[in-house]
Write a structure and sequence with these properties.
The chain is an alpha+beta fold. The chain has one domain: RelE-like (YaeB-like fold), CATH 3.30.2310.20. The protein contains three helices and five strands, in the order E-H-H-E-E-E-E-H. It has a five-stranded mixed beta sheet with strand order 1-5-4-3-2. The longest helix is centred in the last third of the chain and has 21 residues. The radius of gyration is 13 Å and the shape is globular.
């Protein structure tokens, strides 16, 4: 099993969801926890256009417009970075990817500085 870590930004987004939406996210995160890097389509996919190794979870095999963005850190833990709702938003990835990359780089810098030692 893979350790699941989430950022404050992901937590805030998750808390803003309805109970049903949270259930959909929890289900796909559980799959990630069990399968790790072996989790594949239709439950996740690579985030196109990202300069960092970002992936997205696809709740309900992609039938949900919710997209949690995550990456695997050097310890191979899955870090849930941020999420969003792509329904009706043609600029969803152009808007969300730079934010996710900034959060991800900050997370990695904090990890190098030893600020995430308690998550081991």
């Amino acid at each position: 099993m893979v350790e699941i870590i989430f950022t404050d930004e992901f937590g805030e987004w998750f808390d803003s969801l309805s109970e049903d939406e949270q259930g959909d996210i929890f289900d796909v995160v559980r799959k990630l926890e069990l399968k790790g890097v072996a989790l594949g389509f239709p439950h996740c996919s690579v985030v196109q256009g990202a300069s960092e190794p970002l992936r997205e979870l696809r709740p309900r095999q992609g039938r949900s417009p919710l997209r949690p963005i995550y990456a695997f850190d050097p310890r191979r833990d899955a870090v849930l970075i941020i999420g969003g709702n792509k329904a009706g938003d043609p600029r969803f990835y152009r808007r969300l990817v730079p934010v996710a990359e900034r959060i991800w780089r900050q997370y990695l810098a904090e990890q190098v500085a030893g600020l995430h030692e308690d998550e081991e």
